[in-house]
Specification:
Blueprint lengths: L1 E2 L3 E6 L4 E4 L2 E5 L2 E4 L5 E4 L4 E6 L11 E3 L1 H10 L2 E3 L2 E2 L5 H12 L7 H10 L8 H7 L4 H12 L3 H16 L5 H8 L4 H12 L5 H4 L6
Antiparallel strand pairs: 1-6, 2-5, 2-7, 3-4, 3-6, 5-8, 9-10
Helix pairs in contact: 1-2, 6-7, 6-8, 7-8
Length: 214
């Protein structure tokens, strides 16, 4: 599987391996992969992947190896009993706490950046960059620079991430086309293209392996 964007932790009962730009692959019980790093992740058995909002982890975080103990605790927090899928309701707070113990939590965001991200993450077409900047008392160029400095990712890309997150969040109970419309995508094809660009997968594939789904 190839993923292109989004901070991705790849965890497996087997040993996942990440290959980057012809450099020697990295292998460990689990791996944290930073956003906007083109890579290929290979595993030999069932695995769990946790996608995290990029501003929750330090912008300078590189690829990190996770030891077996950390992986077990993360899987337990995510409700994964083994290779059969989700066994209990996930505790995302506990999972993030385990993750932050390894990566370190990100510094507190500038309040104006925090507000802009909250607005940008709302589903739907959203405000223009000019309107968003005005709402937080900044010029568009200054807001763009502050977001890039604080998070390490352009605001336009973060807005795409917010729409994708919103669409995936409602997909268990609706069709991909309806989810795309609710999140502000032009159509289902637009949603699928964005998903492949950001996480290297289609939205539907995120639910294919869940128990009780076909």
């Amino acid at each position: 599987m190839t993923t292109r964007r989004g901070k991705w932790c790849c965890r497996s009962a087997a040993t996942p391996r990440v290959e980057r730009d012809c450099r020697p692959p990295l292998a460990a019980a689990g791996l944290v992969v930073p956003p906007q790093l083109a890579h290929t992740c290979a595993v030999t058995s069932a695995y769990a992947a946790l996608f995290v909002d990029p501003w929750l982890i330090r912008a300078d975080t590189g690829i990190l190896r996770l030891d077996a103990g950390t992986v077990r605790r993360l899987l337990a927090a995510l409700g994964v009993a083994g290779t059969d899928g989700l066994a209990t309701a996930p505790d995302l707070g506990a999972a993030c706490a385990e993750l932050f113990a390894v990566t370190g939590a990100a510094p507190r965001l500038d309040p104006r950046v925090d507000q802009a991200l909250r607005v940008a993450m709302r589903p739907g077409p959203g405000s223009s960059l000019t309107e968003l900047a005005a709402a937080v008392g900044l010029s568009p160029s200054r807001l763009h620079a502050l977001v890039r400095e604080s998070v390490g990712i352009p605001l336009a890309r973060l807005r795409q991430w917010g729409r994708l997150r919103a669409a995936v969040g409602v997909m268990p109970g609706t069709s991909a086309a309806a989810a795309a419309a609710a999140a502000g995508f032009a159509d289902q094809a637009h949603l699928t293209r964005t998903s492949r660009t950001l996480i290297g997968r289609t939205p539907a594939s995120l639910y294919r392996a869940a128990p009780g789904r076909t």
